Structure formats: C-alpha cells, structure tokens
Amino acid sequence: MGSDGMSRHYARGNAVVDGDRGWFVGQFVAEEHGLRRRDDVELKWQRHPRGEVRAGSWVSYRTATTIPILLEGEILIRIRTGEGIDEVHLRKAGDYVILPPAIFHTWEALTDCVVLTVRSPSVADDVIRSSEP
C-alpha cells in the first residue's frame, strides 16, 4: 500500500484530513486519489460552529438526493415545500432527513455540531441556487 492510504483493492484515510470543504468522496476528487473519486456518491464530514448558516442560501439538486446525518450537536434544516417552509430539527446522534432532487433547503447550526452528508449520485454542476426562501 502507498503512503496515501491506497491499494488497488481498497482505500483508507481520514475524512477531516482528506476533505475539501468537508467533501472527501465524489466526482470532484482528483483521479490520483483512486477510490475516493466516485460518480455514484459524495461524502462530506463537516464540523459547524454554533450559528453557522449555509453559505449561498437555498440549494436544490437536479438529480441528486442529499442525506445529512447528525453525528453530534444540533442542526436545523429548512425545507421549502409547496405549502411554505418546514423546519426539521436534527437533535440526537443518528437523526437524518432525506432531501430528494428539486427540493430547496438550507441549514443553521444551533449548537456546535458534526454532520455526515451523503449525496447520490455525484454529478458535476447539479446544484441549483436560490436566494429566496
């Protein structure tokens, strides 16, 4: 195995060290990182300080489903629906919400927290941004 944690059969590493803005697996990872470069899934491990809000306001994805999973702390996910805005509080470790394509959402860290986000598939330029709630 090389010093980068790769063999031709598997990869290992550290999500905190390997992450770029928290993202450590996906189509945006350079080819030389081997198995971390994927087009079927994206993974993000992120610490958010209390009061941090999603940069760029509201987002949706054309084809990808996003699943934030709370590991520690508390985070508020706001979801735009046809009837208004729903608020989903992720309060205990393991709480998650599944956000399918075309659902606008944003978030706010209510305490210092750690979130693992899974997005599938990993598609370049899939994001749609909106400044309106």
Textual characterization of the structure:
By secondary structure, the protein is mainly beta. Helices cover 3% and strands 40% of the residues. It has a domain at 43-130: Jelly Rolls (Sandwich), CATH 2.60.120.10. The chain has one helix at residues 15-18, and strands at residues 23-25, 42-48, 58-61, 65-72, 75-81, 84-90, 105-109, 113-120, 127-130.
**In CATH, what is the class of the domain at 43-130?**
Mainly Beta
| Approximate shape | globular
SS-derived structural category: mainly beta
Helix fraction by DSSP (H/I, runs of at least 4): under 10%
Oligomeric state of the chains present here: single chain
Instruction: Report the average pLDDT across residues.
Output: 92
Strand order, largest beta sheet: 1-2-8-4
Report on the biggest sheet. 4 strands, antiparallel
Number of helices: 1
**Low-pLDDT residue spans:** none
Q: Could you state the CATH homologous superfamily of the domain at 43-130?
A: Jelly Rolls
Which architecture of the domain at 43-130 would the CATH scheme give at its second level? Sandwich
Number of strands: 9
Percent of residues in beta strands: 35-45%
Rg (C-alpha, Å): 16 Å
CA distance, first residue to last residue: 48 Å
User: H/E element string?
Assistant: HEEEEEEEEE
CATH topology of the domain at 43-130: Jelly Rolls
